[in-house]
Amino acid sequence: MLMFAVALFFSLFGLAILSIPFWLLLTMPREGAQAPAEEPEGKPAPVAVSPSKFFADDRAPLVPVPASVLVSRIEDHVRLEQAAAKSFVESPTALLLHAPTASPLVN
Amino acid sequence: MTNAYTELLAGLDAGQLDGVLALGSRRLVPGGSELFHLGQDAECLFLVESGRVRLTMPIALRGREEQVLVEEITVGQVLGWSAVVPPYRFTLTGMAPVDTEVLALPRESLRKHFAEHPDVGYAVSQNLAASIGRRLQLFQAMWLRQVQRLVESRCA
Question: 3-state DSSP call for residue A3?
Answer without folding.
Answer: helix
